[in-house]
Amino acid sequence: MPRRASEEGAGQRLRGFAPIIDARITRLILGSFPSEASLAAGQYYAHPRNQFWTILGRLLDEPLTELPYEQRAARVLAHRVGIWDVYGACQRTGSLDAAIRAARPNALAGLLARAPRLQAVAFNGAAAGRFRPLFEEAGLRVRVLPSTSPAHASRSLEQKLALWSAWWNDAAPPARRRSSP
């Protein structure tokens, strides 16, 4: 009988994903660490009940949930939004953030060199939000948002969307001034 990912993850080190970023991003969304479903699929936010792609799709006015993963990532970057996690590796049984052990943070300190236009960071949930001070010290606008995970069902999709929308609007890059003719 094959071993479940949660049984395998209990004793071995799990590795996260490379960031979806480029030098053009102005906003970054940081989660904690991929769920079992995401690790199995090799995709950020792959659990079918995770509301991440629904919420981000509404913010971007893009049908992200209808697109293949590679196209989702491309559309997100086209809107100058990046996606990453605060932890690059950990030990964990299951998918809950509370079960994360022996976590190794991603190389967040070098992020501004890779994304020099970055202005605002949203943390997808309280576990990722523990890294808030690092980004505040760098002068970025930051907000800890309610997790989109199905494990955090205390708020409705519409309540979460309202909070994510407030961040989105506050994090909008300033309008560029046109030079006078």
What descriptors fit this protein?
Uracil-DNA Glycosylase, subunit E; 181 residues; globular
Compile the SSE list and pairings.
Layout: H1 5-11, E1 14-15, E2 27-31, H2 36-41, H3 52-60, H4 69-78, E3 81-85, E4 87-91, E5 101-105, H5 111-114, E6 120-124, H6 126-129, H7 132-137, E7 141-145, H8 157-170
Parallel strand pairs: 2-3, 2-6, 6-7
Antiparallel strand pairs: 1-4, 4-5
Structure overview:
The strands form two sheets. The protein has a four-stranded parallel β-sheet with strand order 3-2-6-7. Strands 1-4-5 form a three-stranded antiparallel β-sheet. It has one domain (5-170): Uracil-DNA Glycosylase, subunit E. Helix content is 33%, strand content 18%. The chain has helices at residues 5-11, 36-41, 52-60, 69-78, 111-114, 126-129, 132-137, 157-170; strands at residues 14-15, 27-31, 81-85, 87-91, 101-105, 120-124, 141-145. It is globular. It is an alpha/beta fold.
Strand content: 15-25%
Q: What general form does the structure show?
A: globular
Going by helix content, strand content and strand pairing, the class is alpha/beta
Residue share in helix: 25-40%
The profile of the biggest β sheet is: 4 strands, parallel
Q: Helix-strand pattern, N to C?
A: HEEHHHEEEHEHHEH
Average pLDDT for all residues: 88
CATH architecture: 3-Layer(aba) Sandwich
Taking pLDDT < 50 over at least 5 consecutive residues as the criterion, the unreliable ranges are: 1-9, 176-181
Number of helices: 8
CATH topological fold name: Uracil-DNA Glycosylase, subunit E
Annotated CATH homologous superfamily: Uracil-DNA glycosylase-like domain
CA-CA gap between termini? 73 Å
Q: Radius of gyration, rounded? A: 17 Å
Placed side by side, the strands forming the largest sheet appear as 3-2-6-7
Please write the CATH class name. Alpha Beta
Number of strands: 7
Total count of domains: 1
